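Entry details:
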Amino acid sequence: MKLNQRREDGLLDAANRLQRSATKTGRLTLSALADAPFGLEIRGLEPENITQDDKAYIWEAHRVAHGLLCFSFERLLEAHELHALTSVFGESEYAPGIINGLGKQPTPSEKHLTVEQQLAIVRARGEDPFMTYIGNLDPTTLRKQSLYEEFYSEWEWHTDMSYIETPPTFSLLHARQVPHEGGDTGFCNQVMAAQELTDVTRNRVSKLKIKHDSTYNSDGSLRPGMVAPESPIEALGYPHPVIRTMPNTDIEALYLGRRTNGYILGMTLEESEQLLNKLWAHATQAQFCYRHKWRPGQVVVWDNRLLMHKRFPMDDQTVRFMWRTQTKGEAVQPVTSSS
């Protein structure tokens, strides 16, 4: 039996056991995602009436699903409903590009502004500082926009906002409009990838850190206010351990961020590039991955500590529009010698 088939069978068994144990949350139904070695689908949640029993059930589903949950709704959510679902997973984090230092560099006229002053400006424009709009529709008019070519190409594997000291733990993506073909989202399980490292590689990288670049978006475009660095060594970003551990557990995961401008501290650029190429080739093997085909109304929640993701290409004549929220994170913990 193939490795992924064993994983899928084990996931289905765990999902069935969890479903049978649900006595107080009978309105929720749980099923494994098709052809996925991880991830579960939840139906029946009422986003305006999430009970404590619902929350306990969702967190247990998160554990069983290895960090990937798909909530299927028969309608599009209101903003306050998405925020209510987000609050199940933690305190909301500001959207990238809203606050200086979180996905944007300040202009000269913005450098003196406090966080509160920046938020006041955003809210005065009628914008939600915790919501990211991703797509080729204008968020206000919902008219199709003319965007740069890179938007429609394949986006690179990445972990959300890993270029800051305390990256978000959870991301939630709500499908508003999606094309019939293209624009799928891939997820790659980095716990599985860490488990399959050779002892030699694990020992080599366990004390190393990667600087996660903040210069570019996942589609290859420059972030607001950023200037392209001469090399990854000069790129702006924050260093994190190559392998991280989950708090109060023995779970380990590769934590690579994104490939563009990644740099392993203490190495020459050539040494860093060679090792990063090796790690990325290992981490993104098909056996660790799942490709999600969207339906309008779905909200997919993933744990950035455990998973990477990317968007597959889409035709420039089609439309894709998503809402995204994220939760505040925790300090990235390195592996210890006893792990």
